[in-house]
Amino acid sequence: MANFYFVLLHISLTFVLTQSAPRKSLITKLPGFNGSLPSKHYAGYVTVDEHHGKNLYYYFVESEGNSSKDPVVLWLNGGPGCSSFDGFVYEHGPFNFEKPVTKEALPKLHVNPYSWSKVSNVIYLDSPVGVGFSYSKNVSDYNTGDAKTASDTHTFLLRWFELYPEFLANPLFIAGESYAGVYVPTLADKIVQGIEAETKPKLNFKGYLVGNPVADEIFDGNALVPFAHGMGLISDETFEVKLRYLTDTTKECNGTFYETSSVKCENLLNKIEQVIQNIDIYNILEPCYHNGGEEENKKSDSKLPLSFRQLGKTEKSLPVRKRMFGRAWPYKAIVRDGYVPSWPQLTSNSNSGPPCVDDEVANVWLNNHKVRKAIHTVKKNVIPRWNLCTGQLKYIHDLGSMIPYHKKLTSKGYRALIYSGDHDMCVPFTGTEAWTRSIGYKIVDEWRSWSVNDQVAGFIQGYANNFTFLTVKGSGHTVPEYKPQESLYFYQHFINGLPI
Questions:
Q1: Residue 40 exposed, middle or buried by CB count within 10 Å (0-12, 13-18, 19+)
Q2: Could you give the residue numbers annotated as active site?
C-alpha cells in the first residue's frame, strides 16, 4: 500500500511540474534593477509556423496580486510595426526607467506604483513577426497584413497557454492602442471563432480594451480638422466658411477631409497642415522640438514658461518622452489605398521610432547584451538590433473598417472599453466618439464625468451590450504614459467588471 501512495505522489508531482511555466523562460534578474523582482517574470519565443521558422517574442509579467486568479491581459502596441516594449518601458510596465547620466550607462529601474501588473498578469507581445525581437527565418513573412497578424497571434495564444496551462482558467482580455485598434478586434474575432469551433485549448476570453484606436478610415480620417478647430488650432473662417459651408457651387470640402477630388479642398487641407505642423500630434499640449539634439532641447526647455515645462510631468523617474517635428496629417500618411508604409517613410528625423518619439532609453536598455541575455532574446546574429518601430515590414490593411467587428463581438456578450486621450491629434477622440455612437446601441450610462482622487479624470458614455467609450482629460496618444494613475484606475475597474 505504501508503494501505491508513493506512485500516486510521484504522478501528482510529475503533473505539477509539467503543467507549469517553463523554467528556462524564467527571468531571475534584470540589469538596472536592484533587489527581487516584484513578481515572477518570464520571456521567450513561441513558434507559430515551424515550416518557416516564424517566432513571436513575448515578455510575461505575473500579477503582483493574485496571479492564479487575476486576469491575463495580452498587450499589443500599434504602428503597425512597433514593439510592445513601448508599453513595457514607457507606459504601464512593472518599472519606471530613470535616464542614465552618461550614454554608456544603463537606465536605473524602479518599481512602478501604477503598473498594470499590480492587478493583472500581462503578456507584452512583439507582433507581427519582424517587430521588436520577433523574427522569421523566411523574410517573406515580413510581407503581412491584418488577417495574417490576427491568425498568427491567435496561434501564439493557443500555444502560449499550452506552455502556461495554469493560467488557462483565468479571464483573458486583449488590450492595445493606436493601430492595435485593428489588431485587437480582429484577434478577438479569431479567438471567438476558435471558441465556437471548440478549438483546444479553450480560451476564457471575456473582452478587450483599446486606446486612441485606429478603427475606420472615414471616421478617423475626417476627425482631425474638426478636432483642430475645436481646440482653437484653425480659425472659424477656415473651418466654417472655406471647408464646410460655402453656399455657391464650389463647396470646397463639404465636411469631408480624408479624401477629396477637389483641388481647392486639397490646397486648403495642405494649408491647415502647414499651420499645425509644429504642434506635437501625440499631445497638442506638449512642447515640440524640431530635430534638435539633446543639448538644443535642454536649451529650448529653459526658454519655456514653467507651465509648459511641467506639462507631461508624472511621478515616473522618466518624464513623458520629448517629441520632435513629425507629420501633422498622420492618418492620411499611415493608411492610403490599404498600404501602410514603413516608419522611416513617415519620420522627419533619423530615429527608429514613429514621428516625434524619443526612444533613447528603451534603445539603450534593450540593446545591451546583458539585458538581452537576461530576457532570453535571440542572438544578435539573428536580430542585430532592437528598434522601437521597424521599417522592414510591408504591411497591408486588408480587413477594412473595425466597426463591424466591434458590433459583432459586443453583440455576443464580450465587454469592450474604447478610451481616448482627449488631446491626441494622431487619432482624435472626435472620430472615436463618432464611430462608437454610430454603432447604434442604446445609451445606458449618459455622458458624465469620472474621477480619481476627487478630481475629474475624463468623461464616459456607456452603451448597451457592455460597450463603453471613455475620455482621459489632458492625455495624449499613449494614455498610460501621460496619466498612469488614472489609467490604472479605469483598467482595474474594467477588467474586474466594476463601474468606472
A1: middle
A2: 178, 424, 477
